[in-house]
């Protein structure tokens, strides 16, 4: 059972959360080390080695039985199949974006993500928006529109990453398993396909294993740890502090990626980019203020109820 008491362990929760989003923010540096390998092959290895890594963790935690029991519910199986496909798209597009010098646009996707989550809440869960949330969505739409008009094409990388991660999050909320067990099942479903693809590449003589340096091979194998470790930190953080607090920490990752894109990878960041990001940042600020006010209102109502 998840611990909902946010006492002294909240400090550890924040540290876990900061560690998770910091690692996610620096992931572009990791994928850049593998830029001599085809993005699809990197994705295949990422899934393959993630499976072995999280399977070992689940085994040590004694949770293998939960993986087996999960398949008894057909609805949950369908949901996790959909979640698996969606997160594969997200991972693949992100790896391609990083190694194709689109880190800035990728970072925009994760700034937009919380606002896409709001939109999905309205469309799928029939939630109602308050005034500030509506304004924040409009501001983000203006930001995306500016880039679209200026460069003559929709920023598909940003929107694909934002939408896929939002849909993945929505599906995961509907699946009653822990993050580690869920990732084990997801990677297990993709294991035969990815293993087959890697073997095909190796037989064809274009596979990475044996054709790249030992250090690159170790980095490729380590992609499983690079994938699962932030997720484990996130899960530990989410158990110790409110999910809303984790939500505010999520801006650490795209901020780090944006800085890397501009100052480390020397990607272009024009006045148009600044204007577009500016509208999105204002939208996020309004959204954050709205969230803080809502939390305070709920807290006050709870206190009033307790004092009666």
Please provide a written account of the structure.
This protein is mainly alpha-helical and 308 residues long. The chain has one domain (10-307). It is built from 13 helices and no strands. It has helices spanning 10-32, 39-61, 64-70, 74-99, 103-123, 131-151, 156-173, 179-203, 214-221, 223-240, 243-249, 252-264, 271-307. The longest helix is centred in the C-terminal third of the chain and has 37 residues, at 271-307. The model is unreliable at 1-7 (pLDDT under 50).
Q: What are the key terms here?
A:
globular; mainly alpha; 13 helices; 80% helix
Concise description?
This protein has helices at residues 10-32, 39-61, 64-70, 74-99, 103-123, 131-151, 156-173, 179-203, 214-221, 223-240, 243-249, 252-264, 271-307. The protein has 308 residues and is an all-alpha fold.
- Residue share in β-strands: under 5%
**What is the percent of helical residues?**
over 70%
The figure for the number of domains is 1
Major sheet? none
State the secondary-structure class.
mainly alpha
What number is the mean pLDDT? 88
Low-confidence stretches: 1-7
Shape: globular
What's the number of extended β-strand segments? 0
Topology order in helix (H) and strand (E) letters: HHHHHHHHHHHHH
SSE blueprint:
Elements: H1 10-32, H2 39-61, H3 64-70, H4 74-99, H5 103-123, H6 131-151, H7 156-173, H8 179-203, H9 214-221, H10 223-240, H11 243-249, H12 252-264, H13 271-307
Helix pairs in contact: 1-10, 1-12, 2-4, 2-8, 2-10, 4-7, 4-8, 5-6, 5-7, 5-12, 5-13, 6-13
């Amino acid at each position: 059972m998840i611990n909902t008491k946010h006492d002294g362990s909240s400090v550890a929760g924040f540290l876990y959360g900061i560690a998770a989003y910091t690692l996610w923010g620096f992931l572009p540096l990791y994928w850049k080390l593998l830029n001599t390998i085809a993005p699809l092959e990197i994705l295949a290895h990422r899934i393959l080695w993630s499976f072995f890594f999280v399977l070992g963790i689940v085994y040590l935690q004694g949770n293998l039985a939960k993986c087996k029991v999960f398949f008894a519910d057909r609805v949950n199986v369908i949901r996790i199949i959909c979640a698996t496909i969606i997160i594969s798209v997200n991972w693949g597009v992100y790896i391609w974006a990083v190694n194709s010098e689109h880190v800035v646009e990728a970072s925009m996707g994760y700034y937009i993500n919380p606002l896409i989550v709001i939109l999905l809440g309205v469309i799928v869960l029939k939630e109602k928006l308050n005034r500030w949330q509506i304004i924040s969505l409009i501001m983000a739409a203006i930001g995306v529109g500016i880039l679209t008009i200026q460069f003559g094409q929709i920023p598909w990388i940003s929107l694909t990453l934002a939408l896929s991660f939002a849909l993945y999050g929505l599906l995961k909320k509907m699946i009653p398993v822990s993050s580690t067990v869920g990732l084990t099942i997801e990677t297990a479903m993709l294991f035969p396909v990815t293993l087959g693809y890697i073997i095909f590449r190796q037989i064809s003589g274009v596979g990475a294993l044996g054709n790249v340096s030992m250090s690159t091979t170790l980095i490729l194998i380590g992609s499983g740890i690079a994938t699962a470790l932030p997720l484990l930190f996130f899960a530990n953080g989410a158990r110790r502090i409110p999910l809303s607090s984790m939500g505010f920490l999520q801006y650490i990752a795209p901020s780090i990626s944006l800085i890397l894109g501009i100052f480390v990878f020397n990607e272009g960041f024009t006045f148009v980019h600044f204007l577009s990001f500016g509208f999105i940042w204002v939208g996020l600020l309004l959204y954050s203020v709205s969230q803080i006010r809502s939390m305070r209102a709920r807290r006050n109502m709870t206190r009033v109820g307790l004092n009666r």
